[in-house]
Amino acid sequence: MTTGVVVFTRDLRVHDHPALAAAIREHKNIVPLFVFDDAVERADFRPANRTAFMLEALADLDASLQSRGAALIYRSGNWAEEVLALAEQVGATAIHLSEDVSGFASRRLAQLTERSRSSEIRVETHPGVMVISPGAVLPTGGDHFKVFTPYYRKWLALPWRTPIAAPKEIASIQGLDTRSAPKLEELSSGPLSPNRVTGGEGLARRLFAGWRESHLHEYESIHNDLPGNSTSHLAPYIHFGCLSPLELAASALWRDGAEAWVRQLCWRDFYHQALAARPDASWADFKHRGDHWIDDPAALNAWKEGRTGFPVVDAGMRQLKEEGFMHNRTRMIVASFLTKDLGIDWRHGARHFLEWLTDGDIANNNLNWQWTAGTGTDTNPNRIFNPTVQGQRFDPKGEYVRRYINELASIPDGSLHTLGPLERAALGYPDPIVDHHEAIAEYRLRRA
């Protein structure tokens, strides 16, 4: 009649939760736990959008657990110490949690494993954060994949585990001090986006079910359509594990038109396996190219505030602050503009994104930034996005731009991306802070 502790991290759900399922199979009583890690609270920035989303997801998880007979236990402090202390308090024989790949998660797990040895409490890790765990997809020579396409082929060819149904009941120890989650203001500094999304597994599953029926079949043709805004918007729910990446991929793969979307889930796995092999690449160049970055605080601030004078760039940056989200096509455009037009270090952009994105994820965010900057896994490091051409191609009528730039709301279709200086002055909209063609010529000289 044993007890097991299930530690929730980036897996805030009850559906397809291998760690929870394994604990239920092995133990009579389950103690669900979430620890507010003081190492996170001591970080130099604590993004409000992600913190608020996480608190909402935790409340939803607690309600799901309670409806099944258990309650989520909250603790705050040193993560490894708090996990082990509760496990010892309830007489647990094992601690179950999902395997993560970030350097931060790996260090926490190592500390917990080391501390648990003296207590003779097993620490068991399980899949759940990715579709396929990093160690399962390896090139012929071992190590890790550095190029996406061969990784994708092998990823698709491997057998996937079967998604696990949510438990109907969870036996737990009654009378434990569950405590309460801290308030948002205790955990976060900085403003909230006024139109951010709400966290939680229940909402996430409804959103996915609706989008799967309405838009999944046409994803390949619509995913670059800026004004249509018809992509899944599920990234925050995947980041916090409100949705299982495996369950999403398995439920979508054989539907008409779904492969392009499933490919995006594979990109996420690809970046996670790259970061698992190269944890330094979270902030260091994956491939060092000797870039000579420009220190230009005024240009960086204009980019952050959406005042560069390039409408599609500025619309994306304003969307980021308004919603805690940015369309994926626009993410590439604004990243290319910062690193290649302005010549500013990609790390400044990655950090700004992490401060605002509700789906901010070190592996996806920072390695995508490196892909655009030309220091990452990309085989075409000098790819350049012309912001004017991108706007004309993917927002030809200017609907996306007008949605986020009030100064340009009255501009008719067609002329918005090529405004002249007199029109800009009359509208209170800035002139371009660089000449794109001159800036790119200078970029090529710096990288030569």
UniProtKB/TrEMBL annotation:
This is Unannotated protein. GO terms for molecular function: deoxyribodipyrimidine photo-lyase activity; DNA binding; FAD binding. InterPro entries: Crypto/Photolyase_FAD-like_sf, Crypto/Photolyase_N_sf, Cryptochr/Photolyase_FAD-bd, Cryptochrome/DNA_photolyase_1, DNA_photolyase_1_CS_C, DNA_photolyase_N, Rossmann-like_a/b/a_fold. Pfam families: DNA_photolyase, FAD_binding_7. Its cofactor is FAD. The keyword Flavoprotein applies. PANTHER family: CRYPTOCHROME, CRYPTOCHROME CIRCADIAN CLOCK 5 ISOFORM X1. The keyword Flavoprotein applies. Keywords: Chromophore, FAD, Flavoprotein. Residues 2-131 form the Photolyase/cryptochrome alpha/beta domain. One of its GO terms (biological process) is nucleobase-containing compound metabolic process.
